[in-house]
Specification:
16 strands; 7-stranded mixed beta sheet; 339 residues; globular; alpha/beta
């Protein structure tokens, strides 16, 4: 009798996730099968739902996956990858060639063979998944599984972006949007030695922002918030963690000399930025594209050593549509608990 597993799939573009039984997948050479414990819900799951990257259907979504190695494919090193070992899989699904210019320059995320979890291959809204072994990140002992999950995408996006900007300690950094990315960004910035301005609409998140490590709070719904930012000091960076195009120009105006606006959220529509705002003050806009499995391991190690915690709400697999539809109201990350 064929072995099956329960999974949540998008059967067609624009549809809802549906709970189905699928054949248990077998790992190909250099791939592994993971028994999924939990999977985070991310706004980027809508790119699968809406076919933004022209993915096939049906497709199992989910790219913040935590589980244990259950079976090794042919040619997988059994010394490095052990049955029962806890591992994580993020947005990057591995499959790097190791030979192209990008791979040789340590830019494996941009290898043309690189896969996206939950887009090119089935993701973690399932009891099992199979992925290339180079997609796996090892989990430090002692970390709570559900709290680890958001760090596999949101966490590594924040940490890798900060680490690769070569920011001096003590730099004033604004975190715009105190949600799934933002609540982690405040903690990482604080623990990395930066002075944090939490930026949000209204004051409902001020108390929590300060508890997470923010030294200042600015209500961006109020007139004069840009001047308030400037009064605090010369802002070196603003991390835009909210997908709002209308905040780009005003964020540029709030930056200090040589300031950078770092885009960490996918803004679905084009945005406007005045050239003079960039030229006068030597300002710039940069983006950051997540991280690979080594970046995830670095993120988890730093988070574990510095007590950085994800604030989560758990759901069962059967509640996945509720978790995805209400993602904008999440406080602050929704996690599907499978095992």
């Amino acid at each position: 009798m064929e072995k099956t597993m329960k999974a949540a799939v998008f059967k067609q573009k624009g549809g809802d996730l549906e709970i189905v039984n699928l054949s248990l997948p077998e790992p190909k050479p250099n791939w592994v099968r993971i028994k999924v414990h939990s999977c985070g819900v991310c706004h980027s799951d809508y790119t699968c739902k809406n076919g933004v990257f022209k993915n096939d259907y049906p497709r199992v979504s989910g790219h913040e996956v935590l589980g244990e190695i259950e079976k090794l494919g042919e040619d997988v090193d059994p010394i490095k990858f052990k049955i029962g070992q806890m591992v994580g899989v993020g947005w990057n699904g591995g499959n790097h060639c190791g030979k192209c210019r990008e791979c040789l320059n340590n830019q494996i995320l941009f290898c043309k063979n690189s896969l996206i979890t939950g887009i090119h291959i089935d993701g973690g809204y399932a009891e099992y998944l199979v992925v290339p072994s180079d997609a796996l990140a090892f989990i430090p002992k002692g970390m709570k599984p559900e709290e680890v999950v958001p760090l596999l995408c949101a966490g590594v996006t924040v940490y890798a972006s900060l680490k690769n900007q070569n920011i001096k300690k003590g730099t004033l950094i604004g975190v715009l949007g105190i949600g799934g990315l933002g609540h982690l960004a405040i903690q990482f910035c604080k623990k990395m030695g930066y002075e944090v301005i939490a930026m949000s609409r209204g004051i409902s998140k001020e108390k929590l922002s300060r508890e997470l490590g923010a030294s200042h709070f600015v209500d961006i719904s109020m007139d004069g918030w840009i001047d308030q930012m400037k009064e605090i000091g010369s802002v070196g960076y603003i991390l835009l963690t909210a997908p709002f195009a209308h905040l780009v120009q005003s964020s540029l105006e709030a930056l200090g000399i040589n300031g950078k606006l770092v885009l960490l959220s996918i803004i679905p529509e084009p945005f406007n930025a005045h050239s003079l705002s960039l030229i006068i003050g030597n300002k710039s806009i940069v983006g950051w594209y997540i991280g690979d499995s080594k970046d995830i391991e670095d993120t988890l190690q730093f988070a574990n050593e510095n007590q950085i915690k994800s604030i989560i709400k758990t759901f069962q697999l059967e509640e996945v549509n509720e978790a995805l539809v209400n993602i904008a109201d999440a406080k602050f990350r929704n996690v599907i608990k499978i095992l």
